[in-house]
Write a structure and sequence with these properties.
Length: 516
């Protein structure tokens, strides 16, 4: 066959002059790679159909072939530097700059080519072992996760995340760290070694549906992002008229997330921060500036003195009725304390700079509520409420947590007619302002479980899988639990607890610039 013919040409080094110049250069680079780097290398003919007649590798298939997607705009200059390092170590054609080419186009092209090469044993093994590395913020990681889900592959590649953003909640949850990595050869090879040893872990996908009556002429209810909708919000858009979820006379939006969805004042602060950063990117080059800006915005928006500056009409209970459903599909109302100004639906144990709002409930006090350990693949989402910024800062104290409201398989927000003309929402780090029609009593946001996606995780990551034999199925009696009741802390008491914590300190892994 043609493929075998080209492979025989690679095997015959004495006839190396017969190979095209480009092919010789690629083979020369491959031969100079260390045995370690060869475990990740993908030949160009597997990636691009145009190269099929020029390059066919006669080498053992790599143990851990990777496609590398890097957001060159993330981490200041780090993204661009990381691209150069990966391209110097691997095949230039397996490293992609997301500012130049979108991941959906790249993956569709590669998988179409792999399908064309399905009779090639080498290409088949590449497809079976393929992994993805994505370097960027949480929004970039969510973008890749959404694309992989949309492709509906029979064997979707697991994804490792390089913490190149500001929040980095996804990388932190799966053991890849919190701080921006080094971009030199040593740092990249160390990360690749972790990828080689990583375990696969499934995490739940969560589908979000928002529906409202079509506004009158002149009105628009499309999401308003800070200056522009980020790529990760490809997952949140108005459905087409032919979509099965479309309903006549209504505007229907759909989307998905993997880490968290939040509604209320924390999303408002995040929106203000992102707007400021996109208007003046030159002012956001280091964590100290980010930290001071977040604090300033938190103060000007009234988040630290919410009871004085935040209108009661914006509190969650006054804004919407909240319902939850268990796995059996039965819906019931969820009581939301009147002081709650922000609500978070959490899938992973990492939020707002690496904090865990759910914490570890005291088993004696929580047993009657039927709570379980928060697994990332159990089909349940943790629902947590916050009163103000001081309540959020309690998370930094030992055993600190938000107000644990429920665990649910589905959750629905039914907005009260005329309650407000807009609210703020945030999904996996990306905030937006959501206009709401004042004359509509049917505005609804519903979150439901929708399948799973594969992640790569280090063996000591903080995320727990219910299918991992080493993961406890019940709360461990030896663990340290929080003894405070969720509902008993009065307004302002969280401030006293925060200030009185003798052992209070900001953990090393927490980036205070991400505290909402």
């Amino acid at each position: 066959s043609k493929i075998q013919f080209h492979r025989s040409r690679f095997l015959s080094l004495d006839h190396h002059h017969l190979l095209p110049p480009n092919c010789c250069a690629i083979m020369d680079k491959y031969n100079t790679l260390s045995d370690f780097l060869k475990e990740f290398y993908i030949p160009t003919y597997v990636l691009s159909p145009e190269e099929e007649e020029e390059e066919e590798e006669a080498v053992p298939p790599p143990a851990s072939p990777v496609l590398v997607f890097i957001n060159s705009k993330s981490g200041g200059q780090l993204g661009g530097e990381l691209i150069l390092t990966y391209r110097s170590l691997l095949n230039h054609s397996q490293v992609f700059d997301l500012d130049q080419e979108t991941p959906d186009k790249v993956l569709r092209r590669i998988y179409l080519n792999l399908e064309r090469l399905k009779d090639d044993d080498f290409a088949r093994q590449i497809r079976e072992k393929l992994k993805i590395i994505v370097a960027g913020g949480d929004g970039t990681a969510g973008w890749l996760l959404g694309v992989v889900c949309d492709l509906k592959l029979s064997h979707p590649p697991p994804i490792a995340t390089v913490p190149l953003g500001t929040g980095n909640n996804l990388p932190f949850a799966f053991g890849w760290g919190k701080k921006n990595p080094g971009t030199d050869r040593t740092a990249v090879e160390l990360f690749l070694e972790q990828v080689l040893k990583a375990k696969e872990m499934k995490i739940d996908n969560w589908h979000i549906l928002m529906r409202m009556k079509t506004p009158k002429e002149g009105g628009s209810c499309d999401p308003v992002a800070p200056l522009e909708l980020p790529h990760s919000l490809h997952a949140f858009h108005r459905v087409s008229p032919t979509d099965e979820l479309n309903k006549e006379g209504c505007h229907t939006f759909r989307g998905g997330f993997w880490n968290y969805f939040s509604l209320g004042m924390d999303a408002q602060i995040s929106y203000a921060f992102h707007s400021e950063r996109k208007l003046h990117p030159e002012k956001f080059k280091n964590q100290l500036v980010n930290q001071s800006t977040y604090v300033k915005l938190g103060c000007t928006q009234g988040w630290f003195c919410a009871s004085l500056f935040h209108p009661a009409s914006r509190n969650i209970a006054q804004l919407a009725k909240v319902k939850i459903a268990t796995r059996n599909g039965q819906w019931h109302d969820l009581h939301i304390p009147h002081s709650i100004r922000s609500i978070v639906c959490l899938n992973l144990p990492s939020f707002s700079g690496g904090l865990n709002p759910w914490g570890t409930p005291n088993p004696r006090k929580q047993r009657d509520r039927g709570l379980t350990p928060p697994f990332v693949d159990d089909g349940l989402i943790e629902v947590v409420g916050f009163r103000n910024a001081w309540h959020g800062l309690v998370l930094l104290a030992p055993n600190g947590h938000g107000t644990r409201l429920a665990q649910a398989n589905r959750i629905r927000f039914e907005f009260h007619k005329g309650a407000t003309d807009h609210t703020f929402m945030r999904m996996d780090g990306e905030p937006w302002k959501q206009p709401l029609p004042l004359d509509d009593e049917t505005v609804m946001v519903e979150i439901s479980h929708l399948g799973q996606v594969n992640m790569l995780a280090t063996h000591d990551c903080r995320s727990r899988s219910m299918f991992d034999p080493s993961t406890p199925r019940h709360y461990d009696a030896s663990e340290e639990y929080d003894d405070n009741e969720d509902e008993s802390m009065a307004e302002g008491e969280e401030f006293r607890k925060f200030g009185a914590a003798d052992t209070f300190k900001i953990p090393d892994e927490v980036d205070i610039s991400q505290l909402s």
